[in-house]
Each structure stands twice: as C-alpha cells, then as structure tokens.
Specification:
This protein folds into 2 domains: 191 residues, Cytidine Deaminase, domain 2; 34 residues, no CATH class. Helices cover 36% and strands 26% of the residues. It contains 7 helices and 9 strands; from the N terminus they run αββαβαβαβαααββββ. β3, α3 and β4 form a beta-alpha-beta unit. α2 packs parallel to α3, α3 runs parallel beside α4 and α4 crosses α7. The structure holds zinc ion (ZN).
C-alpha cells in the first residue's frame, strides 16, 4: 500500500493526457484510491490510500475496511468518498452495491460518492457503472479543469508535493490533450448516468445534448458548459 500522503509519482497516475486507451504503455497499470470515511462511531473520520495488488482491486480493500467497521453493533451510518485514478470495474461495482444492500438490510445507511480521473474500460464495465447509479451511488464529475486539479494537488490529507512538482503536474493536467479527454469523459459519464436513470436522449451531438426524464428536460451545451432545465406539470 502506498503511504499517505502520496507523492509525485502516485499523484501523476491520476493525470493521463492521451485519448482513451491510446499509447497503452503510458497508462498506469496501478489503481490508487483515496478514501474518506465518516461514521457515527468514536473515530468518525478516516483517510486511507489503497493500491491494487494482483487479483485484488482497490475497491475490495476499501470494502474490507468498511466490513471491519460494520462489525461494530453501534454502527448506524457510513458516509464515504472515493477519489480514484480509474473508475470501478463491473465486479467491484457489484460488490459495492451488495455492501450497500447488506447495510440497508441491517437498517443502516450507506452513502458513497466516487470521483475518478480516467475511465477504466467503460465499454466492458458500463453495466456495472449503471448499477452503481441505479443504487444511488453518486458519481462526481470526472476531474475537470484547473480548479479541480489544484484542489486535488493541494489536498494535504492525501497529497504532498514540492511547489515545483505541483507546478509540473498542474501543467500536465491543464494540457489541451487532457482537457479534451475530460470533456469527452464527462460526456460518457453523463450518458451512463442518463441511461441508468432511464433518461431518454432525444438529441445528442458533440455540441448539444437534450435529455428528457419524466417531466424534466435537460439541455446541455458542451462548449459553454451551460445546462438548462425545463420542467412542466
Ligand atoms: Zn474492480
């Protein structure tokens, strides 16, 4: 497991600048997850860093930690947050959903927000990602733009960098190639969330997206990042 806070080489694994799955050799083959767990127990806040090992993904390590916590009969609720360099695979997604269901069967609440910086094979894992959305696991937008990266690189709960290293990583994160990937990935994520919520995309192009869900219409203009919402009764 990497030590917390992570340093430059691990922080760099969050910043992939290439178009999805091109230059495969430059994509990190490790997944890193930064987790924050709050609960009603005496030590409510815990920050952890997980890294995958052969045959064991980061989410499994995270769930083991939560299962340990859930042994305590006084546990009532867990609110957790994961920040990862890759999105969860379908198997891990199902395990997260199963953990949530087990918590709920025991009259406990579990909420989880996941933010990631790059998709992990979103075609093969699409159904798993949709399963998370259907079970009210929240996806925060893929890291996008300088503000998000600055916040990530300055979060001293997790990351420690010299000023020069931080500038170097920020420059990579702000590159045109990375910015395009982020726009593209956020469109894919929006589509996945829309499909899971059974929104109907009535029109979609690289400039505009129109979705209808019940009595609400969402109109997204990608270039301006404006979203207009119309509802009717
Ligand atoms: Zn997995």
């Amino acid at each position: 497991m990497p030590k917390r806070p992570i340093g430059k080489s691990d922080a760099k694994k969050f910043i992939v600048e290439h178009k999805y799955w091109t230059n495969r050799h430059l994509w990190p083959n490790t997944t890193i997850a930064l987790s924050t767990v709050n609960s009603n127990l005496a030590d409510p806040t815990a920050h952890n860093v997980y890294q995958n090992e052969p045959g064991k993904h980061v989410e499994r390590f995270f769930l083991e930690k939560l299962q340990e916590l859930s042994q305590n009969e006084e546990l009532v609720e867990i609110t957790a947050n994961l920040v990862q360099n890759y999105s969860p695979c379908a198997t891990c997604a199902d395990e997260i959903v199963n953990f949530k269901k087990t918590m709920e069967e025991r009259q406990r609440s579990f909420s989880l927000t996941i933010q990631f910086s790059s998709f992990y094979n979103h075609d093969d894992n699409r159904e798993g990602l949709k399963n998370l959305v259907k079970n009210k696991i929240i996806f925060k937008k893929v890291f996008q733009g300088e503000k998000d990266w600055d916040k990530f690189l300055k979060n001293d709960n997790f990351v420690t960098l010299t000023t020069d290293d931080k500038q170097e990583l920020l420059k990579m994160a702000k590159s045109d190639a990375r910015r395009k990937r982020e726009e593209n990935d956020n469109e894919i994520l929006n589509d996945i969330i829309g499909e899971a919520k059974d929104n109907k995309a009535i029109f979609s192009s690289n400039k505009i997206n129109i979705n209808i869900s019940d009595n609400i219409a969402f109109i997204m203009l990608h270039e301006t990042k404006y979203c207009m919402i119309f509802s009717w009764t």
